[in-house]
């Protein structure tokens, strides 16, 4: 069984990963399937695999208009600034996936990581199809209808556009704080 979990910097995505690791079907990723089942599923590996995918937004260096005595000029970020931003994005992605890999190692689950660049909802659906994923798992931020309409929902998009079953893990219920 090949499972893909989308990871971002939200607690909800790590909750979804923890849910995957804590539930019984995670055993499918540690024990090798019978040879006939693996051949029928079209997988060449002897056991399941968990893929952790993080999609970072592409950095678009924009020009900044500035007024001067000669008129309006446009200033663009230097190559050093662009390099610095991209390096920072890579470090953030690596840290997120490292945290997720450590969670998998603690449960003795075999996992691989992917870092992609682009629109998260499109890239997650594309890569899940390319990799013949059996199950796509995404966390839900719990947006209301209005916020979801304006901000969009990666989980909602994946549920409707991914070519594999998609499991949306809702965040845990918030504890009611008691005022004593």
Task: Please explain how this structure is put together.
It comes from Corchorus capsularis. Residues 2-170 form the UspA domain. InterPro entries: Rossmann-like_a/b/a_fold, Universal_stress_UspA, UspA. This is Universal stress protein A. This protein has 180 residues and is α/β, with parallel strands linked by helices. Helices cover 41% and strands 22% of the residues. The protein is built from 6 helices and 7 strands. Strands 5-2-1-6-7 form a 5-stranded parallel beta sheet, with helices on both faces. A two-stranded antiparallel ribbon has the order 3-4. α4 (120-130) packs parallel to α6. The model has no long low-confidence stretch (mean pLDDT 80).
């Amino acid at each position: 069984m090949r499972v893909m979990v989308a990871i971002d910097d939200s607690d909800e995505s790590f909750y979804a990963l923890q849910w995957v690791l804590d539930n019984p079907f995670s055993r499918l990723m540690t024990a090798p399937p019978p040879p006939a089942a693996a051949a029928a599923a079209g997988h060449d590996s002897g056991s399941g695999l968990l893929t952790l995918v993080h999609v970072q937004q592409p950095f678009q260096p924009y020009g900044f208009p500035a007024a001067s005595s000669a008129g309006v000029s446009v200033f663009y970020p230097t190559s050093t600034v662009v390099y610095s931003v991209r390096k920072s994005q890579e470090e953030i992605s690596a840290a997120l996936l490292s945290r997720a890999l450590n969670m998998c190692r603690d449960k003795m689950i075999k996992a691989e990581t992917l870092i992609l660049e682009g629109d998260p909802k499109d890239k997650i659906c594309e890569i899940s199809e390319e990799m013949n994923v059996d199950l796509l798992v995404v966390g839900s931020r719990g947006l209301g209808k209005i916020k979801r309409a304006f901000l969009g929902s990666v989980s909602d998009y994946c549920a409707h556009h991914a070519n594999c079953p998609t499991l949306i893990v809702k965040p845990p219920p918030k504890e009611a704080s008691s005022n004593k």
